[in-house]
Write a structure and sequence with these properties.
There is one protein chain. It contains 13 helices and five strands. The protein is α+β, with helices and mostly antiparallel strands. The chain folds into two domains: 4-233, Rhopdopsin 7-helix transmembrane proteins; 251-399, Reverse transcriptase/Diguanylate cyclase domain (Alpha-Beta Plaits, 2-Layer Sandwich). Helix 1 (4-29) packs parallel to helix 7 (190-241) and helix 3 (62-86) packs parallel to helix 5 (118-141). The mean pLDDT is 85.
């Protein structure tokens, strides 16, 4: 069986290594992991406590025992503060400051004024049990935390359950020995060594679990940042492709679709282009105001979007012009589709939509096929010419091949 100095030395090594890792992690991530500062200070206090304990074992000083107990107790309270900060749980810190004061007084009393150190052992057991149950309560309240933290929390909960059971048994044993009049002249016994060795193993598991929690917190932040960037990119893509007023594709996006349609036409795809213009739109703006004109554009965009096929595309070409691209469609089908567009516009309740009963809205359309031998410019020129003819024919007309 290891003696206390060996157990304390291993505790110093393990806590020292964890303290170095935690401190390094804290230097670069203290703003990203809540509670990391408390956990780092806790480990540093444990290291100091282990050093004091080792010195106390070799020199048997009462002051060393008190200091060692206090540093360990303060570190345990700070560990609880770290858990509370990490889980965003509100706690009364003043109560735990008072607890540390009471623990210090009890430690001084049991170390300096009592010969039977079973009482000192019981005091330490009760303090550890109290904090352990506080840990368990906090972990239980956060059992449904984010999936990033659920498994480490579960490990911590199980570990502290085992630790609580162990110290309950140790308290019962010490109390029984004290009740039977047994004397513990030195703070050492086979049972005490076993519990100290077990506590060292448990604390190593706890510190590793906290490292996993900290790592998962950083990974969660990275995942959230990546998600936010994806959302921002989607918004930027929408802003780059969509018209701010109507929500339809803007001219740049429409031109890309048109380029694609012209290329597909060269491969035998039957594509058609329709150019639509609002009749007397300038007059609407002048007589009713630009706000009314904007409402006309928005409602037309909704009408067009709901009137075309899923394979068709419509975008705002500029001003009061809209451009449609139809794929795999015959001239007859295109003419029928354009006719339905005109009917939808003519039958729409514009008086209530734009709050002006004196304003009527109509459209003129020019549509044409995409020939395999023609360029985009040729197709647009012919669609624009047909639109011009539609307006010359009295507006509200559609002209196509």
């Amino acid at each position: 069986m290891y003696d206390q100095s060996t157990i304390a030395f291993f505790g110093l090594v393990f806590h020292g290594l964890f303290a170095i890792v935690y401190f390094t992690l804290w230097l670069s991530n203290r703003e990203h992991v809540a509670g990391l500062g408390y956990w780092t200070i806790n480990l540093l206090l444990h290291v100091i406590g282990r050093i004091v304990v080792l010195t106390n074992i070799s020199q048997t000083t009462q002051i060393g025992a008190v200091v060692g107990n206090l540093t360990t107790g303060i570190g345990a309270v700070l560990f609880y503060f770290g858990l509370a900060a990490f889980t965003k749980t509100s706690i009364r810190k003043s109560f735990y400051y008072s607890f540390v004061v009471v623990l210090g007084i009890a430690s001084i009393w049991s170390t300096c004024f009592l010969e039977n150190l079973y009482i000192r052992s019981i005091v330490a057991d009760i303090a550890i049990l109290f904090l352990t149950f506080r840990y368990l309560t906090l972990l239980w309240k956060n059992r449904n935390a984010s999936h990033w933290y659920r498994r480490p929390f579960m490990v911590l909960f199980l570990v502290y359950c085992v630790l609580a059971f162990t110290f309950i048994m140790r308290t019962v044993f010490d109390a029984s020995a004290l009740y039977n009049g047994e004397l513990l002249p030195a703070f050492d016994s086979p049972q005490l060594r076993i519990s100290q060795l077990f506590a060292l193993i448990v604390l190593s598991i706890v510190n590793f679990s906290i490292l996993v929690l900290s790592n998962n917190a950083l990974l969660k932040d990275l995942a959230n940042d990546s998600l936010e960037k994806d959302k921002m990119m989607d918004k930027l893509k929408i802003l780059a492709e969509r018209d701010g007023l109507t929500g339809l594709l803007n001219r740049n996006a429409v031109e890309q679709y048109l380029d694609n349609a012209v290329e597909q036409a060269k491969s035998g795809c039957r594509c058609m282009v329709t150019l639509v213009d609002i009749d007397n739109f300038k007059q609407i703006n002048d007589t009713c105001g630009h706000e009314c004109g904007d409402l006309v554009l928005v409602h037309l965009a909704n009408i067009f979007s709901t009137s075309i096929r899923e394979s068709d595309m419509v975008g705002r070409w500029g001003g009061d012009e809209f451009l449609f691209i139809h794929k795999e469609i015959t001239p007859e089908q295109a003419a029928d589709l354009v006719h339905r567009l005109h009917e939808a516009v003519d039958s729409f309740d514009w008086a209530n939509a734009i709050h002006n009963g004196d304003t009527s809205v109509s459209i003129s359309s020019g549509f044409t096929t995409c020939s395999p031998t023609e360029s985009k410019r040729d197709v647009l020129r012919r669609a624009d010419l047909n639109l011009y003819l539609a307006k010359e024919n009295g507006r509200g007309q559609a002209v196509g091949p």
